[in-house]
Amino acid sequence: MSRIRNARWASCAARIACSALAGAVVLAQAPPPSPFAKSLALRTDRIVADSSHVAVAWLTQTSPATYAATGPLRLRMALVPWEGDATVVKDLGSVAVYGGDLAATPVPVVADVRGVADGYYRYRGELHDGDALLATLERPVVLVAGLESKQAAVTLRLAKIQGHDSAKATVLYPFDLARVINIGKRVFGSNNSAPEFGLSQAGVQQRYDFPAGLKRSSDLLTTLEAGRDSLWRAKGESVRHYHMAEADEILPYHVFVPSSWDGRSALPLVFILHGNSRDQDFYFDRDDHIIPKTAAKHGFMLVAPLGYWPNGGYNYVPFTRERGARAVAAAPQQFGPSPAAPPANGGRGAGAAGGVNGSVTPALVRAEWSEQDAMHVFDLVKQEYPIDPKRTFLFGYSAGGQGAHYFAQKYAGNWVAVAIGGSGATAGPYYDSAKIGRTPMLLVSGAVDPALNATRAMAQALKEKGVDVSFKEYAGQNHDTTPGAATPDIFAFFAAHARQ
Fold first, then answer.
1. Residue 9 to residues 149, 203, 358, Cα–Cα distance (Å)
2. Is the C or the N end of the chain the one with fewer CB within 10 Å?
3. Nearest-angstrom CA–CA distance, 42 and 31
């Protein structure tokens, strides 16, 4: 399995807000933050930085505020661990700040991180007026030695190889991920309500391990140069990648193929849509890998897309609301603080036209890309593997269940049967059950899941509309535990509903 994670860098909730840098004189207690202190920010030229070079940071302001000092201020900089306390990894020195408009003319700070081991850190700056601490500023940074030279060498080597697009995308993924983080399309250090890289079953943020990813890229490139593509029609579990043109980004998807497959026979497929705050790996890892273990018993292939980002939602819109015009470009745009009322653009509420969690990409665009990413992956898998159209199934849970209700209608011809759990979706006026026709559906819910009543009502409403739907409730199971409990029944349901 090629999953690349490191839980050591997962949680960054713990912070010591105002400690002095190691070795510094103990300073006077800082006063409550002034408007000037609140206006300050630390910017960097890279979040994922090549530690073979000197980096640059800037002290700037994000809002107008003035401050009168008797002399120059001094900004002390250090590199500290990503999480935990502020123990200094490397002292980055200090710089005098002589006044002026820091928004118009930020103060540059050279950050010599050369020689620091690869890993996840924070730049930490403490701005002082004499002995008084005015502000403590932090900025995350991921250090990867030789990143730029490695990318240049890999690009030249790949140019000599014909074909193998998916394997090439996998080779390039660490470099492209660094690019999209650095240009602001993805946010490193995001919070758990809008994670960029998903949460584990225990609710721990997942982080991409760049050194391990680069090692995997190097190994895969070596096999390609030797004339072998170790990913093409591979058995077992693998995380694959492709370039999504709409987003101009390389995206991952997770594949499982039973070891019993003979390499020729048509494969039954279960296409999985994960829920909010999860990623393409989640349903392979959870509950001691129960889903791939069960799939192996049935001889089923599994595929799970990222859906562009963990909270993409596959472009689902509640069936009580008409989809309408959803293009961000055609809607009035709000700049500055988000309005209290939802924008009138068919979006997802306040902030739909603005970036997500500090990213530069609007939520509504991400929602569109979520649907497109999922279906691109579905098409790519069908091009590579001999998928059995009489045994192609859809499973979605929670927000993925909402997406599955939507996909069951819009892409009805692809699914022989559909299983959905914990979605809370309702059969409103825009739920087009006629498109689903007689496609069998199984709805599941835990008995203590808040979505129980909605799921039960949805099953009854679909039955009244003529849909071949079954409902199963699991005693003692909540929203998080139901998928594990329901997995045997879901796969038995799929196995029993192969098209003749």
1. 25, 14, 20
2. C
3. 20
* Chain segment 453-464, per-residue pLDDT in tens: 999 999 999 999
Q: What pTM was computed for the model? A: 0.88
Picking from 67, 249, 49, the residue whose alpha carbon sits closest to that of residue 139 is 49
Question: How high is the mean pLDDT in each 10-residue block of the chain (500 residues)?
Answer: 39 32 41 86 94 94 92 96 89 94 94 95 95 94 96 97 96 97 86 79 86 96 96 96 97 98 97 95 95 97 96 93 72 65 36 68 91 98 98 98 97 97 94 94 97 96 96 97 97 95
pLDDT at 31 (0 to 100): 57
- The type of residue at 45 is D
